């Protein structure tokens, strides 16, 4: 009987010790959760974004973490499915006790997360989702990148300086693109620019071929693509048969490698894309150098605008964590501060009214024979 009591006491003490160690381990960990498309229609975008985020967190952890706490970065593949994204975020909050949440790709998955009960109860802020549609969100969403409207304004200004006044539109008809299409049409009117024609992406191959030929004959100075990567690629492949030297412009959430695979490298000549980060291959700033060096050290993958954006998103989140405030308050405090945030040669000018951290927009042009020129 005595030995059984001693055994029970020993086991109880061991369990208490393990529990205490577990609590201590949790106390020394900052959990960052994210649900994002890694294998669906925007998987190539998601994988690059996650690679950049992971790389920065790895670089922090090998140097002791944030205030002695390691960052535990948990990523769930939502495959671009809104319901799956909401479920993944709920699990990250309930089971993994996420302290911070990073967003996924597109307004549909963002809306699903915001509408979930677990997210509503968490009080957290969804940080740095990748959204290309014109939509307004409240302070529960904090964007790292500038707005799609800012990107489109930059595209218009860029070609306005070249004296181009005639514009065609390649439009992938769906609910997500409708607002941006209306925005572009309204902007054409404001700038007294002529809309030469419209190609509807996603209609029958015959209709698209016919519309592309009509648009090419109208000789627009530029065609603006309001479409995802696949839609833009399908349009380019057809349009370039008729107009090999007409400028086609798209936005930053087009995956350029996938675009080249769909349309063919030749079709990418005379195409330009707005970018929300400086050239990731350049070494003009400390953060560009760090991104390049850390990617080589931890990932051994190609650098891209999305790996660089992810790297700087993670660096911005760490700056918020270093304020010592809890999750939502830390991010909101960072967004509300009036001073410029220096990430190492790339600066942020956060706005607590637009809920955006960066206003940076640039343009990248495909060189003849391949490769981007910023």
Topology, element by element:
Blueprint: H1 2-27, E1 29-36, H2 43-61, E2 70-77, H3 82-94, E3 100-102, H4 107-114, H5 117-122, E4 126-127, E5 141-142, H6 148-160, E6 166-172, H7 175-190, E7 194-201, H8 205-217, E8 222-226, H9 229-239, E9 247-250, H10 256-263, E10 271-275, H11 286-298, H12 305-321, H13 327-336, E11 341-342, E12 347-348, E13 362-366, E14 372-373
Parallel strand pairs: 1-2, 1-3, 3-4, 4-5, 6-7, 6-8, 8-9, 9-10
Antiparallel strand pairs: 10-13, 11-12, 13-14
Family: Belongs to the leucine-binding protein family.
Protein name: ABC transporter substrate-binding protein
Organism: Undibacterium umbellatum
Number of helices: 13
Please provide the count of β strands.
14
**Overall mean confidence score, pLDDT:** 89
Shape: globular
CATH topology of the largest domain: Rossmann fold
Q: Give the CATH level 1 class of the largest domain.
A: Alpha Beta
Across the major sheet, the strand order is 7-6-8-9-10-13-14
Low-confidence stretches: 9-25
What is the terminal separation in angstroms? 80 Å
CATH architecture of the largest domain: 3-Layer(aba) Sandwich
Order of SSEs? HEHEHEHHEEHEHEHEHEHEHHHEEEE
Class by alpha and beta content? alpha/beta
Report the biggest beta sheet as strand number plus sense, adding barrel if it closes: 7 strands, mixed
Integer count of domains? 2
């Amino acid at each position: 009987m005595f030995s059984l009591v001693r055994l029970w006491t020993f086991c109880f003490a061991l369990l208490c010790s393990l529990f205490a160690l577990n609590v201590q381990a949790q106390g020394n960990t900052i959990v960052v959760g994210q649900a994002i498309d890694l294998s669906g229609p925007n998987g190539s975008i998601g994988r690059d974004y996650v690679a950049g985020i992971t790389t920065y967190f790895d670089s922090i952890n090998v140097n002791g973490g944030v205030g002695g706490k390691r960052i535990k970065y948990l990523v769930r593949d939502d495959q671009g499915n809104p319901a799956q994204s909401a479920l993944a975020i709920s699990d990250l909050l309930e089971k993994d006790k996420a302290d911070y949440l990073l967003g996924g790709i597109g307004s549909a998955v963002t809306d699903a997360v915001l509408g979930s009960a677990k997210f509503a109860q968490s009080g957290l802020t969804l940080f740095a989702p990748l959204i290309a549609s014109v939509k307004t969100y409240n302070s529960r969403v904090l964007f790292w990148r500038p707005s799609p409207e800012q990107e489109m304004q930059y595209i218009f200004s860029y070609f306005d300086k070249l004296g181009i006044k005639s514009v065609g539109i390649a439009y992938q008809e769906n609910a997500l693109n409708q607002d941006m299409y209306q925005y572009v049409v309204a902007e054409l009117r404001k700038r007294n620019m002529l809309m030469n024609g419209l190609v509807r992406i996603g209609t029958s191959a015959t209709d698209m071929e016919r519309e592309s030929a009509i648009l090419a004959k109208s000789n627009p100075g530029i065609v603006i693509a309001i479409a995802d990567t696949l839609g833009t690629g399908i349009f380019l492949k057809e349009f370039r048969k008729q107009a090999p030297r007409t400028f086609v412009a798209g936005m930053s959430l087009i995956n350029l490698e996938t675009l080249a695979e769909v349309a063919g490298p030749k079709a990418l000549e005379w195409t330009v894309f707005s970018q929300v980060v400086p050239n990731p291959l350049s070494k003009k700033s400390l953060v560009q150098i760090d991104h390049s060096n850390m990617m080589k050290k931890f990932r051994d993958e190609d650098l891209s605008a999305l790996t660089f954006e992810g790297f700087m998103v993670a660096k911005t989140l760490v700056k918020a964590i270093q304020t010592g405030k809890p999750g939502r308050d830390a991010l909101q405090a960072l967004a509300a501060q009036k001073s410029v945030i220096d990430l190492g040669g790339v600066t942020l000018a956060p706005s607590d009214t637009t809920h955006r951290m960066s206003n940076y927009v640039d343009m990248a042009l495909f060189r003849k024979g391949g490769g981007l020129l910023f």
